[in-house]
Design brief:
Layout: H1 2-15, E1 53-60, H2 73-77, H3 85-88, E2 110-113, E3 118-121, H4 125-129, E4 134-141, H5 147-156, H6 166-174, E5 184-190, E6 216-217, H7 236-257, H8 260-283, H9 290-296, H10 305-317, E7 322-328, H11 336-360, E8 367-372, E9 376-377, E10 388-389, E11 393-398, E12 406-408, E13 410-411, E14 418-420, E15 423-424, H12 425-435, E16 445-447, E17 450-452
Parallel strand pairs: 1-7, 1-8, 4-12, 4-15, 5-6, 5-7
Antiparallel strand pairs: 2-3, 4-11, 8-11, 9-10, 13-14, 16-17
Helix pairs in contact: 1-7, 7-8, 10-11
InterPro entries: Alkaline_phosphatase_core_sf, DUF1501, TAT_signal
Pfam family, one: DUF1501
Organism: Gimesia fumaroli
Length: about 475
């Protein structure tokens, strides 16, 4: 019997990609062996949850805080003059090491928006229009000065590859609320200004957690999920029999070896089958009004950031817990003025439209919106651009759980380093978990004899002053 199941397992692995929707085996993540879809390992929250879902608007490439959310008049006045050595001596800079460090003024004026008077770059008037709904953290800092490890740190809490992403941690702790879509979905878009920043699937991987908790990347154009449709000539009934038969074989083998990845495989077949109905409905925009489409600035399905924002709202409506939108357009080492003009237009309108749309549909109060990148940019010039910068940058939060119209923390007068109320990436992770009712100190997973946490072993603090 053991030989039969071993041979059967080998056959399925070798032939999986030829079974049509079963090719989602490498993508989807749900344990259909569990009947209680909404349950994770945390049966009772540590605190009263404030949010149910997250949309992470990841501005990949490192947006300059000095051309977005951190107004620095002193830096403007010092344009072209040497940076104070007291700030920069012995400090790590990426590609400016050993060069003359000169002040580089913000390339645009800033404007006060809303009753709160939030200072936001004039290139983002639509985001400015919802300033009273936003909490701007201007004192973020991180440890990693190059893109990939900085992305990895922001997403997983560690610069070492192989750790679970924050979305995977949430699914592991809380489960998911939908049974016909993954609980964690990723969408990407490429802008026309700056470099198309590379990103890797490990940013949304489940790491050492069971693979059913990993994120699933949807395609931004064409069919959102590859190999989803039934092969020509195969009926739903025939496919149902195939899925049932394969799952029966899988369960038989699981009875022998008790491998959690077999339960994941069963869930992948079931999810693929259900998604043949749910995904076409997700992508059908005929019920979206012209006013809504115009507000986002898209007709949908064109692969743009605006199109992905609209799709993200539809995913949230259907119970997806964690949605990430990567816009790969913010690596502005040169020509930052022109690049920001382009990139701002790509994200400004749709970001504000998403916030307004979520409010109108009653989803805003229990959704956490995160807008920002993996680090900032230097106050010093790199030709006509800015280099990578880790000591101070900005991040924007929205949703009913955070205080709208609030500015938290500052950098120094040059925008070089976090000065007042510095916030490390670990503090952000602790706060994220707290808003979901989870104490980051009590939420861990044992792997190779160690208890791992999203916030790691170093000190991390919930940013209580920004919570509504």
């Amino acid at each position: 019997m053991s030989d039969f199941y071993s041979s059967r397992r080998s056959f399925l692995r070798q032939s999986a990609l030829g079974i049509g929707p079963a090719a989602l085996l490498s993508l989807l993540s749900r344990d259909a062996g569990a009947s209680d879809l909404g349950q994770g390992v945390i049966s009772k929250p540590h605190f009263k949850p404030r949010v149910k879902r997250v949309i992470h608007l990841c501005m990949a490439g490192g947006p300059s805080h000095l051309e977005t959310f951190d107004d620095k008049p002193t830096l403007r006045e010092m344009h072209g003059k040497p940076m104070p050595e007291s700030l920069t001596k012995g400090q790590q800079v990426a590609q400016l090491q050993g060069r003359e460090l000169k002040c580089f003024a913000p390339q645009f004026e800033f404007t006060s928006f809303g009753e709160s008077g939030q200072r936001i770059c004039s290139q983002f008037p639509n985001i400015g229009s919802v300033a009273d709904d936003l909490c701007i953290i201007r004192s973020m800092y991180t440890d990693q000065i190059n893109h990939d490890p900085a992305h990895t740190l922001f997403n997983t809490g560690s610069s070492q590859a192989g750790r679970p992403s924050m979305g995977s941690w949430l699914l592991y702790g809380l489960g998911q609320e939908c049974d016909n879509l993954p609980g964690y979905v990723v969408l990407t878009s490429v802008g026309k200004g700056g470099q198309a920043q590379p990103i890797a699937a490990r940013q949304w991987h489940s790491g050492f957690l069971p693979s059913r908790f990993q994120g699933v990347q949807f395609q931004a154009t064409g069919a959102p999920v590859l190999y989803l449709n039934r092969p020509e000539g195969v009926t739903m009934q025939q496919q149902r029999r195939l899925v049932d038969t394969v799952n029966q074989l899988n369960r038989g083998f699981d009875d022998l070896v008790h491998d959690p990845e077999i339960a994941t495989r069963i869930g992948q077949y079931e999810m693929a089958f259900r998604m043949q109905t749910s995904v076409p409905g997700l992508m059908d925009l005929k019920n979206e009004s012209k006013e809504t489409m115009s507000a986002y600035g898209t007709e949908g399905g064109d692969g743009t950031y605006a199109s992905n924002c609209l799709l993200a709202r539809r995913l949230l409506e259907r119970g997806v817990r964690f949605v990430q939108l990567y816009h790969r357009a913010w690596d502005h080492h040169g020509g930052i003025k022109r690049s920001i003009e382009i990139t701002a237009k790509e994200v400004d309108q749709a970001t504000a439209a998403l916030i307004k749309d979520l409010k109108q549909r009653g989803l805003y109060d229990d959704t956490l919106i995160v807008f920002g990148g993996e680090f900032g940019r230097t106050p010093m010039a790199q030709g006509t651009g800015r280099d990578h910068h880790i000591k101070g940058f900005s991040m924007v939060l929205g949703g009913g759980a955070v205080q709208g119209g609030k500015s938290f923390g500052t950098t120094d007068d040059f925008g070089y380093a976090a000065a007042e109320n510095p916030v490390h990436v670990r503090d952000f992770h602790a706060t994220l978990l707290h808003l979901f009712g989870i104490d980051h100190r009590r939420f861990s997973y044992k792997f190779q004899g160690l208890d791992f946490r999203l916030t790691g072993v170093e000190e991390a603090h919930v940013i209580k002053d920004i919570i509504a």
